[in-house]
Amino acid sequence: MARLTHIFTRFAVVVSEWTGKPAIFVLALFSVILWGATGPIFDYSDTWQLVINTSTTIVTFLMVFLLQNAQTRDTRAIQAKLNELILTSAAENRFIGIENLDEEDLRHLDRLVEKAAKRHREKHDGKADEGGKRNEAVIAKSVIKQKRRRVSRTASTGNQSKKAGSSRKPA
């Protein structure tokens, strides 16, 4: 099974790179123009229309899976790189793993980060207000809530970081 997955991954990478080239777009455009030009020859028959409809449907259907595979792999790689940067820098480790939060939690975290950025700007402009301490408490509660979710999620999935051989533990 692992070998089959590896073969599919390599195939998906090659096809993704290949289909992203301008020459392939020109080839596809030429195919459509050629198909359109043959319309009068085939008297715009149902079979003539069926050729383009069937071929584009099949290609689109297969490409969805190949491109999704490539996109998912790229996203995981980028996420791993960002996590590594966070771990090795002065950035806050609480942001590691936020890609696993649901949409509502991400929106909430985004609002909190915006508020923190605004406070930071105001502080550096000499306009810090007393609301900053209140917002810090809200952020701290959010972090605690996120940690609880991560701990329960990790416990329910059998602590995937240990299975992957990782020696680091997200904060």
Derived structural class: mainly alpha
Low-pLDDT residue intervals, each spanning 5 or more residues = 157-171
Mean pLDDT: 80
Give the overall shape. Answer: elongated
As for the number of domains, it is 2
Number of strands: 0
What does this structure look like?
The chain has 171 residues and is an all-alpha fold. The protein has two domains: 2-85; 96-163. Helix content is 75%, strand content 0%. The protein contains six helices and no strands. The protein has helices at residues 2-19, 22-37, 46-88, 103-124, 131-156, 160-163. Helix 1 packs across helix 3 and helix 4 packs antiparallel against helix 5. The two termini are 34 Å apart. Residues 157-171 have low confidence and may be disordered.
Helix and strand arrangement:
Layout: H1 2-19, H2 22-37, H3 46-88, H4 103-124, H5 131-156, H6 160-163
Structure summarized in a few sentences:
By secondary structure, the protein is mainly α. Helix content is 75%, strand content 0%. It has six helices and no strands.
